[in-house]
Amino acid sequence: MNDMNYNPLTPFIKGELRIDELRGLIRYHDDKYYGNASPEISDYEYDQLMHELLHLEDEHPELIREDSPSRRVGGQPLKEFATIPHTIAMLSLDNTYSYDELRDFDIRVKKLLGREEIEYTVELKIDGVSASLIYHQGEFQQGVTRGNGMEGDDITWNLRTIRSIPLQLNESMDIEVRGEVYMPVKGFEAFNQTRDVPFANPRNAAAGSLHMLDPKQVAKRPLSIFIHSLGNVPNWTIPTQEQSLCKLQGLGLVVNPYHRLCQGIDEVITYCQECEKLRPDLGYEIDGTVVKVNSLEFQKRLGVTSRSPRWAVAYKFTAQQATTILKDIIIQVGRTGALTPVAILEPVELAGVKISRATLHNEDEIKRKDIRINDRVVIERSGDVIPKIVGVLPAAEGRNAPFIFPTTCPECGAMVIRLEGEARSFCSGVNCPAGRQRRIEYFASKGCMNIEGMGTSVVKQLLEEGIIEDIPSIYTLRKNGDSALFLEEKIGRCPHFSKRLCSLEGWGDKSVENLLASIEESTTRSLNRLINSLGIPQVGSKLSTVLAEHFGSMENVSCATQDELLNIPDIGPKTAANIVTFFSQEQTKSLLASLKSLGINGKGKEGAAVPRSRGDEAEFVLTGTLPNLSRAEATEIIQRLGGRTADNVSKKTSALIVGDKPGSKLKKAQQLGIRIILAEEFKEMAMVGIDKNGE
Fold first, then answer.
1. How far apart are CA 150 and CA 87, in angstroms?
2. What is the mean pLDDT of each run of 10 residues along the chain (695 residues)?
3. What DSSP designation does 154 have?
4. Catalytic annotation on 667?
5. CA–CA separation, 641 vs 643, rounded Å?
6. 3-class SS at 666?
7. Which of the residues 125, 388, 665, 668 is marked catalytic?
8. Which domains are seen in the chain, by residue range?
């Protein structure tokens, strides 16, 4: 270099200055877009700034900082979410549905505080997913879901992808804030068009997105957040909720603009009425308002119950209704084999959405409301999401005949079974196309044939690729068509190595070998496991063991008469009838014949058919109402997975399963430090199995 003024550090210095400038510009435009709803540049121009920043940080990796906007693109996929305890419990709110109930809340607050007038804040109740954000010295450190209220999942990397969450606050301070992650309606509609199986509503889409293990995929989803309250902030000196919202906004956090300070309950009710009128034009889903005592000192004095704060309440808006014509009733068969009637409606506009279908829940619901085809019906969006029929306006004469619920499955023709005391009916076919994936998953699950590596995603992939089509085809991977083309060099190591399987995305030699070895090992499973894996209605792991011990072979079990079954102390008339019906089905006979020809007959020496002692079983207690799941169904799932249920919480309890409106059992479980499992978690747990610790 002849240039005497050349400085070798100049490119580095210029790069550092431009990186800092770009970070500042991107943060500024994030705030304008999300904080003030007044964007100054187009999405294209914003993307160009981000691309330039990513390029410069690639050139100067030593300049990358954790609070850089570039870190929103997501890190490496996670294997699982860590569980994080909340310093202050994230409780749910009590709901009110009328202004009289709001006035009752006001009376209780006044009485507890000994005051004649109370100042409240009223905020919109965003229909999203609760999350806690923790900042250290102004930098975003951790994000956690509500979970069971006491602890939640660490979703930090997923939250970092959301542009409306600042990675650096405007002040250097330690603070925990709480908010609601949501998906705007337009973003939800556009995103749903990219999916083979669309989400039912924006809230489900937000919840599903936050629980993805790959943050890079989360970054592609149009999520946003509104911050609404404080978490653990020991040195917070601002005295009121209203002033706190202003302060949070000043820190760079996004606060919903629709909140009002109200003097007394009459002003609260007036603003609730105003908010309800806003709903169609907001661009995001709300289902009510949240009324809070404004004074933080009063909030502290009022305290909380085991489930909710005494200083706040949710006012749920009245579900909007419309009338239309019921054109038809069809039956859908779900993955579990449950038959659900669905109303086909003359399309009608309701709450800004065109409705053409509505759930009818079950056979009893149709009979109770006397719903018939061609009736004029009243519909509403239950929880402002799921349309349902709430009333019938029958014509004075000329109505159609009552709807007859099918006795055979519309998908496969197998007999329909309705368990005693249950509202729902189920297809009994073991190879019904509608429930095929779920049956294969259950067959391969831990408490049944225990085929490791054959969970939900794998079963789905194998079915979609045509590698398996039913349960027996699991055991013919080495014989079916081109999946029999082995890699000769692998034969010595794994004689069942399938070339077709190895060619699939995400599969390597080792993973294929492990799966096929686990399939081979499952051929040694004992009779009680094989019986349990069939999914016979009302037959769980315990009764499968009883049947195996009593009859000794699958052939004897399948040929048992109702009288023979009734001679067994553990079997009642309804269960006996279900067992006989199940084995009388042609699908069942075909399945058993196929398994027998493949050597799957339950005569293996693995796992002798002896009941486990009660001390070896996980003990579960149920409290509250489980959505779309009866107590009997929940108990059956637990038993199938090798657990047992108990009526009361004790030190022996492995976990408490909590539904809507739980009772005093929840408080006792919390006192004893027993694991709390929410209804949604229980559904996921049922898919993968339970161990003694309820995990």
1. 8
2. 45 68 79 60 70 77 72 56 89 88 95 94 94 94 89 91 92 94 90 72 85 87 95 92 96 95 96 90 90 96 88 86 91 81 90 81 88 90 68 80 93 83 80 85 88 87 86 73 35 45 75 85 91 86 88 93 89 87 90 91 54 52 76 70 74 82 80 78 56 39
3. B
4. no
5. 6
6. helix
7. 125
8. 10-73 (1.10.287.610), 95-316 (3.30.470.30), 321-393 (2.40.50.140), 451-522 (no CATH), 614-688 (3.40.50.10190)
